[in-house]
Amino acid sequence: MAIQRPKGTQDLLPGVVEQWQDLEEQIRKICKEYGYQEIRTPIFEATELFQRGVGETTDIVNKEMYTFLDKGERSITLRPEGTASVCRAYVENKLHGGPQPVKLYYIGPMFRYERPQSGRFRQFHQFGVEVLGVDKPMVDAEVITLVWDLYSRLGLKGLEVHVNSVGCPSCRPEHKKKLQEFLAPRQEQLCKDCQSRFEKNPLRILDCKNPTCQEITQGAPTTLDTLCEECAEHFKELQSLLSAAEVVYKVNPRLVRGLDYYRKTAFEVLVEDIGAQSAICGGGRYDGLVQEVGGPPTPGIGFAMGMERVLAARKLAQGEQEGEGKDYLLLVALGDQAQREGFAIVSRLRKQGMPAGIDLLGRSLKAQLKAADRVQAHYAAILGEEELHKGIIILRDLRLGEQVELPLQDFEEVVWKRYKEDGN
Ligand code: ATP
Ligand code: MG
User: Fold this and answer.
1) CATH number for 397
2) What is the pLDDT of residues 211-221, one digit of tens each?
3) Tens-digit pLDDT profile for residues 283-298
4) Does 262 score more than 90 pLDDT?
5) For 148-183, how does the pLDDT look when each residue is reduced to its tens digit (9 = 90+)?
6) For a designed S-S bond to 379, which of 66, 329, 338, 419 qualifies (C-beta 3.0 to 4.6 A apart)?
7) Gap from CA of 60 to ligand 1 centroid (Å)
8) Are the CB atoms for 415 and 395 separated by under 8 Å?
9) Ligand 2 mean position to 348 CA, how many Å?
10) CA-based nearest residue to 300, from 291, 311, 287, 309
11) Where do the Aminoacyl-transfer RNA synthetases class-II family profile domain residues begin and end (predicted)?
């Protein structure tokens, strides 16, 4: 039987890859404009990094990690997310000793053992940013504005930005107590996961997708009810900065990122109609994570964006996009000598940067012209033995259906001129 790719993975073929390249290009451009620099960390890390950095009570660490022993008996995990690695790299490379804040971004594959479905894969890709070393609300506003700006450049529609504050170690204990009191009478009816969250991390129960849990948590006390003065002030300032940057957002008091080191700001971007999975971006402040992986106390904030879901949303907003990367000119050469000459011409054009092609199969004129149509070439240049003998070449404009005969020696200059005039 033919070998198939692992469940939950994808082959990105020509035609689709161009959409990825375009998205990556736009990401790199916006990051440059906002002053974020790229970081590339290993695809695999010591398992302990994620156990400590993502947290034992999360779905990721509990059930979604690709973990294995390498030949040296070390426990290794394919990275399920990027933040823990960035924080590790920040500490390991002593970036905290340099100028602050450190503004980083990454793009790359992540791995989670999940049930594959629309918008949910086992190998998927994230674009994420992390800002380390500042705890001012303006940083929170900057990263959310970057997301908003990117989405409007991509032409996405039907977006909702949800923001919340989950408090800090000084105000969360009061909320935890109130929430436990509220949930206690119906504790037994919670799903199994939430029963185990009840003692350790009841905040995450607000985030559970189980319908019964959602029903039970209706009207539960939210972190916004118990914010301390500092957190309340931070949240207020964030909102006025977002308004100043004309970001349209909603306060969603049920939005949580439930780890101990998550503080203050949490946010998520949802998009309608891309199927069951509507979250395209999630982020928040994590003052405490750097310390968790062995560094000095350092505030941090970031987000991660699911690139497959962003592309799905983009397709929905704009319809199918034609892939690029096609030849501008196809040289149709007939006969051995013309092929040799044609190959030399095409090589020169390519060397100077024009996407040009030549038939590699020795096909007939008709078949070659058909191929030129298929790749949507702008021009076909026809060179047979007879033309070669006369020192001419036929240049056919495939869009207009017109053709001219040119002296062979002028050909490259004419083609270049047209290529430039076409805005290349
Ligand atoms: P979800 O609720 O969809 O499981 P999550 O809370 O696990 O999301 P994060 O860990 O915050 O997601 O990751 C950030 C983004 O990465 C998500 O908003 C989503 O767009 C994307 N993402 C997460 N898991 C997957 C996956 N298995 N396949 C594709 N995209 C994913
Ligand atoms: Mg998930």
Assistant:
1) 3.40.50.800
2) 999 999 999 99
3) 999 988 999 999 999 9
4) no
5) 999 999 999 889 999 999 999 999 999 999 999 999
6) 329
7) 10
8) yes
9) 51
10) 287
11) 8-313
Same domain, 369 and 246: no
Same domain, 120 and 22: yes
**Whether residue 255 sits in one domain with residue 157:** yes
Domain presence at residue 297: yes
Mutate to test the pocket of ligand 1, among 57, 111, 124, 256 (most ligand atoms within 8 A of CB): 124
Ligand nearest the Cα atom of residue 79: 1
CA–centroid distance, 60 to ligand 2, in Å, is 7
Domain boundary among 273, 292, 318: 318
pLDDT in tens, 209-246: 889 999 999 999 999 999 999 999 999 999 999 999 99
Q: Is 277 in the pocket of ligand 1 (CB under 6 A)?
A: yes
130 lines ligand 1 (CB under 6 A): no
pTM listed for this prediction: 0.86
* Of 297, 318, 339, the domain-final residue: 318
Q: Report how far apart, in Å, the C-alpha atoms of 173 and of each of 150, 203, 346, 348 are.
A: 36, 10, 71, 71
Residue in the block written with tokens 């030949």: 71
Task: Give the position, in ligand 1's atom list, of the atom nearest the Cα of 122.
Answer: 27
Indicate if 239 and 121 belong to the same structural domain: yes
Q: Which atom of ligand 1 is nearest to the CA of 121?
A: 28
Whether 79 and 160 map to the same domain: the answer is yes
